[in-house]
Task: structure prediction
Amino acid sequence: DGTFKPMQSVTRAEFASMIAKAMGYDSDPDAGSAYPDVADDHWAKAAINFCAQNDIINGYDDGTFQPNKAITRQEAASILRNAFELTETTDELFPDDSAIAGWAKESVYLVKAAELMKGDAGTGNFRPTSTITRAEAASILMNAKYAGVID
Result:
């Protein structure tokens, strides 16, 4: 309908597409899907395949990708770390550090150090299990551009 819907949650397929495009991906649109729950005619199949082939985004333990599932902030941090090969971290913890999953902590602090993701204004909380909104995803990609992580 031509609207941006800034507060709408971003799905895993949408985030994979955003990351792949930001990286200038080149993927074979005729290749079969890397995941059983991503149809060969899915609009984001090529981007999802690119992210899978480059170890940017992984599927779940059951072998699925769950393209329509909303992506959390800690999942996005892990993807950004993988995509942009971030290595510099920070010792400055978010106030809600204890809520960040163990598997995501390193990624969260790598994206914080790279200034790709920040805490909430006022509280400084990261909100690791909250979903990424379209506005936040746009901000993350602009931060990546300004940080020189993407062209």
Observations:
- The longest helix spans residues 134-146.
- The mean pLDDT is 95.
- The chain has five helices and no strands.
- Residues 29 and 46 are 5 Å apart (CA to CA).
